[in-house]
Amino acid sequence: MNNNSLKISGSNLKKRLKAERRFRYYGIFAISLALIFVLILFTNIISKGYSAFYRTLIAVNIEFNDEINLESIKEMSDEEIKQIDLYSFTKKNIYANFPEIEKKSDKKKIIKLFSIEFEEDVKKYIISNKKNIDNKNQVFLTASDDIDQIHKGNYSRSIPEERRRVSNFQLSIYDKLVNQNRVKFEFNVPFFTRGDSREAELAGLGGSLIGSFFTMILVLLLSFPFGLFGAIYLEEFSRKNRFTDFIEININNLAAVPSIVFGLLGLGILLNTFELPRSTALVGGITLSLMTLPTIIIATRASLRSVPPSIREGALAVGASKVQTVMHHVVPLALPGSITGTIIGIARALGETAPLLLIGMVAFIVDIPGSPVDPSTSLPVQAYLWNDSAERGYEEKTSAAIIILLGFLILFNLIAVIIRRKFETKW
Amino acid sequence: MDMNKKIKVCVENLNVYYGDKQALYDVCMDINQNEITALIGPSGCGKSTFLRCLNRMNDVIDICKVEGSIKIDGEDIYNKDVQVEKLRERVGMVFQKPNPFPKSIFENVAYGPRIHGLAKDKIELEEIVFTSLKKAAIFEEVKDRLDETGTSLSGGQQQRLCIARAISVNPDVILMDEPCSALDPIATAKIEALMEDLKKEYTIIIVTHSMQQAARVSSKTGFFHLGNLIEVNDTETIFSTPTNEKTLDYVTGRFG
User: Which residues of B fall within a CB distance of 8 Å from A321?
Assistant: First the structure.
């Protein structure tokens, strides 16, 4: 046989090809496994959480009478309307919708079909329809969490009655309402505008969205300029000596420190020593800034280093000073990389929970924060809080909060990728 | 030597160290005004180091130490009072690899005059930019695309743009560090022709690896070897009857 044949002959070569194929399969297997897990995670979260974006309302006829005079209400301002007590008025009206029910205990059960704050729905209706309001009105009241879950199919009706939170009697009423077309299913706007609540059907992300927004703005304002100028100084101006080596090692180490350590720092220094207000976006922002700072410095230094020295030489050679060279030529070229690093750092800070638990941003806060010094929570902490609650409604809301959080993270990373693609200079 | 030639740069006892390593040993050299002086020698012989001493580009290297004196028009450029930015305005530099700023062609040339405040207004600045581009023999090729980035030009055009950038601040001396080593022969020929024009106004010092180039363009040539300036003389003499044996070996291609 010709020894120089190009066809596969030797067993050695066959073995090598086999090994190569095997290696490729390992890679494909690993990637598939990772993708499957991501898929499972996403399907799980989305299938559990999407129903939180809808809410159930029940139509109720409300009739104004002598007790609540329509003419006097029309004279009132919005603020005054919010102050009047419509609780028993609304309750009586609800009973009037079910004239066939007379037993007191059954009446109580009827009331339980609605959210505890049903009078608020009536007030909202009055305020938004003040001009053309009649004596007789059909008002949609928020359904209670149990009915909401039944309507969404999250709560099985086949559970025996004694273990079910909704009685057969209530179910029969609910079915009747559905048949009469008096149950409305609509997009859950209050979920995005309301703060947290002890009632699962009323709890919203509004407060934590604003809290996260304030926190992230603070992180951006504090960590980006400090990180940028710190990196510029270290990379372009500082002399290389033991002290700067020491600083460099520490920055690299800080980037790897567990985030809870920064929480302890915030607790010990910001809250205990400087006595800044507890549970606020201000303290959260400062704490997370400290965590983000090393990431930004490292990213900025890397992109400064990737600017070719020939650009610096070109500028120096026409007589630019060191500062002019850096500010006119090097920094503009390094900025896209620095901004990408900042966005990724902020995305990480947005998803951070542990340090915020330590500085008290984990409290139950109903009011939507109006400023960074108001008590607030953040998105991941809200998800954490809801996950701890027993009611069914919180389960879907936990997943919904995580969907929103993941949405923001994907958005941030997308922006970072776009900036890098668009502005990155190739050499 | 021709006595009516004016000496522009006078280097005396120049010693340069990178940390513990000495890169140049007692270099003494006079460079005539409005001439092209070529510096040749094998890689690592110190010719680029020598060139970068003339506009103090070595200052940016922390471990670099320079001893001796370099006088331009009788003024010691390593004097404490000398402002290095001012020096580099008078001594321009063109690098081995064309390094235009990733900005528009116009901005590339306008940058120098702008930071030195050489133009009072936009019209004057435009004037300077256009003159510089014309002097660098690139104006005709780029006049319709001044807004495009400098990096979009071809290699040879980029290098002429860098020359335009160097002369935009109106220097006396132009240092060229192997300006043609990244270019093809046609682009090289264009740059060499350009240098011939430029020497009427500027004193040019060029480091080159190509002995043919040194022979073609320069009036004087210095030969460096292992940090020593072995021999400096009229280019013709260096290439025909050098006094030093090493120079002869180098120019005849026996080593390097």
Answer: 85
Mutate to test the interface with B, among A316, A318, A324, A327 (most CBs of B within 10 A): A318
CATH number of the domain to which A375 belongs: 1.10.3720.10
Task: Please name the residue of chain B whose CA is at the shortest distance from the CA of residue A424.
Answer: B102
> B-side interface with A, Cβ within 8 Å?
55, 57, 60, 62, 85-89, 92-93, 95, 97, 99-102, 111-112, 115-116, 162, 165-166, 168-169
**HSE-CB of A31 using CA atoms within 13 angstroms:** 6
Do A388 and A312 reside in the same domain of the chain?
Answer: yes
ipTM of the complex: 0.91
- Chain-centre distance of CA A204, in angstroms? 11
E-strand ranges in chain B read: 7-18, 21-32, 36-40, 64-72, 75-76, 91-94, 173-177, 203-207, 220-225, 228-234
Give the tens place of pLDDT for each residue, A76-124. 888 888 888 889 889 999 999 998 888 889 999 999 999 998 989 999 9
Domain hosting A121: range is 53-188
Same domain flag for A211 and A338: yes
One-letter amino acid identity for B88? Answer: R
Check whether residue A294 and residue A401 sit in a common domain: yes
Q: How confident is the model at residue A65 (pLDDT cuts 50, 70, 90)?
A: confident
Q: With respect to residue A286, please indicate whether it lies within any of the assigned structural domains.
A: yes
Q: CA-based Rg of chain B, rounded to a whole angstrom? A: 18
Q: Tokens 């008078």 sit at which residue?
A: B90
Give per-residue pLDDT as tens, B176-191: 999 998 889 999 999 9
Q: Which fold has domain B7-251?
A: Rossmann fold (3.40.50)
Q: What is the pLDDT of residues B114-130, one digit of tens each?
A: 999 998 999 999 999 99
With an 8 Å Cβ cutoff, are A240 and B62 in contact? Answer: yes
Encoding tokens for residue A293?
A: 């700072």
pTM of the model: 0.85
Mean pLDDT of A199-215: 94
A238 close contact with B: CB closer than 8 A: no
Contact flag A316-B169 (C-beta cutoff 8 Å): no
The per-residue pLDDT for range A405-424, each reduced to its tens digit, is 999 999 999 999 999 888 87
E strand or H helix at B232 = strand B228-234
Residue A16 lies in a domain: no
**Domain match, A218 and A365 both:** yes
- Which has the closest alpha carbon to A408: A205, A187, A194? A205
Residue B1's pLDDT is what? 46
Residue A99 lies in a domain: yes
Domain boundary among A122, A153, A188: A188
* A310–B95 C-beta distance less than 8 A: yes
A84, A137: one domain: yes
